[in-house]
Amino acid sequence: MTSNAASMELHVHPGETDLLIPLPGLQDLWDPHLIHTHYFGFSIPEAAIGGFVYIRYQPAFPLSQGGVCIFQGNDNVEFTDMAYLDYEITMPWPRIENNTITTDNGLRIEFVEPGVSARLTYTAPDGRLRMDLKADAVTPLLARGHVMPGEEEHHDLARKPGGSEQFMQVKGNLTLDGQAYDVDCFAPRDRSWRQVRVERRGAVASPPVGWSPMYFGPDLIFNQISFEPLDTNPRWAGLYDVGDRPSHHFAWVQRGDETRSITSVNRDVLEYHPRLHMATCQEITARDDRGEVYRFRGEAIACASIPSWPNASFRDSVYRWEDGEGRVSHCTYQEIWFDIYQRAMAERAAGPRV
After folding, report:
1. 165-180: burial string, b at 16+ Cβ within 10 Å, e else
2. Which residues form the DUF7064 domain (predicted)?
3. Buried-most residue among 15, 62, 65, 251 (CB within 10 A)?
4. What are phi and psi of 208, to 5 degrees?
5. Domain segments of the chain: what residues?
């Protein structure tokens, strides 16, 4: 177990933060790397399908990027390997009317009740994909800070950066290339606002971090983001100096109506994808602030490269998790890293030079 526990007090954001998407005033100069985001995910485990729905706002310009990514199976190495991809890097600022956000490529997010309920709709111009999903909260709208360790050093605290995470029950329908699917899953959503996510090379030095939300029932909803501890013999060993900081920097567990902090996380990766390099089989042991210990084992049934952060390697996946009692959860597992790790893994996969 990681001995240095991350200090964390859990807070809840008001629902109106869902629509906190500010633009600079006429006399304001905002960092070009300051962003807001909205993320929603979903899965169809029986078809090994994962969905990544994302908007990234760049208010200094103002521009946006985002769209819908649908991936199936474990062989989505290139972005265009995905079953369906409509993700634009450069779009105008979305149209925001009342509680509804609509992007230039047709993704529509309606916050039916901010902080509680949202509807996601999208229809492909060529008819290949139709999506109509309703996401209803099953946990509080928990406050979350930065994503990457070290990223917080670049934030402008005067602008009050923030973020949130929440588990949703996602129901609806998806039609892909004429095949209709029912969607009924539990999946997280998250967002950031006024965070400075620097894209300059070398600005953030961190091993790969993995986000592993899980929903087993109202009595056990788990979430953590961490890098692999050095004592698990991770592939990043020798590439980074993490000092004595804990491997996790944000984690919580929901036990019915009670939200508890996680004080220690040990994430041990057992298998990696041969080309995507992400974890495809891993075990997690965690302890909460009441001393209760949790053990999970998971395996990827679908995974893909995702285009949202061009200066980093970003992977999304659908994981099949089991808890210590044998209960099963299907949920996203996401991992991100920068060029030092990617080059090292590519060289390792290539083998010794002759």
Report:
1. bbbbebebebbbeeee
2. 209-307
3. 251
4. -55, 135
5. 31-198+205-350
User: Which CATH superfamily is 31-198+205-350 part of?
Assistant: AttH-like domain (2.40.370.10)
DSSP symbol at 17 = G
pLDDT in tens, 192-225: 999 998 888 877 788 999 999 999 999 999 999 9
Contact 321, 298 (CB under 8 A): yes
Residue 177: HSE in the Cβ half-sphere, 13 Å Cα cutoff: 6
Distances (CA, A) of 258 to 38, 73, 218, 254, 289: 26, 36, 10, 6, 12
Tokens (6 digits) for 338: 């920068």
Closest CA to 51 of 203, 144, 136, 170: 170
Checking if the pLDDT of 303 tops 80, the result is yes
Strands 293-305 and 313-323: antiparallel
Residue 188's SS3 state is strand
Q: Which helix (H) or strand (E) holds 345?
A: helix 339-350
